[in-house]
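Much of what follows relies on a compact textual record of a protein's fold. The record below shows the convention in full:
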Amino acid sequence: MGKAERIIDGVWLVGGPNISMSEDATAFVIDFSGELIMIDSGAGRSARTLVRNIEGAGLDPKKISTLILTHCHIDHIGAAPWFRENFGCKLAAHDKDADAIEEGDPIMTAANWYETHFPPTPVDIRFKADHEILQFGSEELHLIHTPGHTPGSMSVYLDRGGKRVLFGQDIHGPFLPSFKSDVSRWRTSMEKLLALEADILCEGHFGIFQTKEQVRKYIQRYMREYA
């Protein structure tokens, strides 16, 4: 296990392979002048490690107001019930994946893949639009509906310090009938992400990609693979 990694000012990688546990998708915290927004929460067993990493970055996990779940798979949502119970943060997800979270659907959450159980968990905020904006003072956090991997997959981006940071998460798939995947809709979603011309891509399993060119190449690689 490692420790939190700073991506840019106030944006931290706090979970994922080599940071918390190998089964975790990447998890991030954004500091908006003391109010924290968390993006994804790992597969569940590393909740306390995530907290230690957040604290190690000089942040107070009690200041997490919202935990955004980019989609309903357990490697992204596993610790969400624990964070909600222990810190009182609101859980937010797209409407099209929220039912699977609230029902603890073992197939749609992929809990059966991990031979574990995800408890039915309330979703406090359901995003329904293709593009939603959360305002934090003069800054905006953008949530883009990017279906394909799952019906309710979302991507998140933030402009800070002259850089556009994109939390693209599971750009690489996989695409399975059991996840209600749709490769055609995914391609359209990837075109949306390319149009953002992000400077930094925070991907769900394969790390951080810097420079516009590297972000573009990473996305296009998978578009070619699933052409």
